[in-house]
Design goal:
6-stranded mixed sheet; 10 strands
């Protein structure tokens, strides 16, 4: 069983930065393509950034150039560095696998004020 715990969210003004962490239990993490997702009120959950087990990354157009996804397989942890935050980035952020989806964690709230 894999458990996912997101942390690092908070309240920040537009233009500020946050660093999110995702702690994943279980041995599957190091072999899995992982992603950060987000869901704003009234919207569907969307993919923000993806990272493969080998470290290849891809980003949603809305966050390219501003967000950086990374992982530390030895620590079973994934990160999302968010810079130049905008109010439209406000959402609950979740981590999970892409091809091996686990039970969703509680997410971490990111609120960007204008």
């Amino acid at each position: 069983q894999v458990q996912l715990v997101e942390s690092g969210g908070g309240l920040v003004q537009a233009g500020g930065s946050l660093r999110l962490s995702c702690a994943a239990s279980g041995s599957i993490f190091s072999r899995a393509t992982m992603a950060w997702y987000r869901q704003a009120p009234g919207n569907q959950r969307e993919v923000v950034a993806v990272i493969t087990s080998g470290g290849f990354t891809n980003y949603a157009d809305s966050v390219k150039g501003r967000f950086t996804i990374s992982r530390d397989n030895a620590k079973n942890t994934m990160y999302l560095q968010m810079n130049s935050l905008k109010p439209e980035d406000t959402a609950v952020y979740y981590c999970n696998g892409v091809f091996s989806r686990n039970v969703w964690g509680q997410g971490t709230q990111v609120t960007v004020s204008s």
